Amino acid sequence: MSRRLDALAREISSCRLCPRLVAWRESVAANPPRRYVGERYWARPLPGFGDPGARVVVIGLAPAAHGGNRTGRIFTGDRSGDWLFASLYRTGFANQPRSERPGDGLRLRDAYIAAVVRCAPPANRPTITERDTCLQYLERELGLLSKARVLVALGSFAWDGALRALRSNDVAVPRPKPRFGHGAEAAVGPYTLLGCFHPSQQNTFTGKLTEAMTDEIMKRAHELARL
Question: In the CATH scheme, what is the homologous superfamily, with its name and number, of domain 2-225?
Fold first, then answer.
């Protein structure tokens, strides 16, 4: 399984299917803000990463322009990732509370992190066409993560993307379509889809999402994965 995920990761990282996203991710890398001048950006699509035997899959929207697009790993090197990894550490899914770059010792236990879109989009807003073009990668990752039972969707975009990916994998999605909300739960075939507000600075700085709220979602994911 690990070898098949590695092969898929190599395929994802060489993708150039969305011209607007290719241009943006490379432009950002060529013109970084002062604090990152001199760093070599990844500037390619990002595969998921984590435990191949994970029962919990955390799904985000897309890489950050100066986070994953810079470091080469989703949610690594930006404030949203700092928030997420700290929660994963507190709830037993990670061995350390922070990750700044691949190779810094972070290991995920029973968790895998992916995204709906794999390139950093302008203004964090991928188009519908870009979403649909990229969704094949999430579909295939979920197909390979045979032990996954809980999908934690970080925000409504990830919630909808997860449902679309499951439908494409011939998983029966309930009708009417389950609605996103923080703490929302939906049984979808063999999975439980669990909603969590995205750990964006807009949500964390305003108190819309607190550490306690994030931890409760991850604790619930832990419980559901063991049922």
Answer: Uracil-DNA glycosylase-like domain (3.40.470.10)
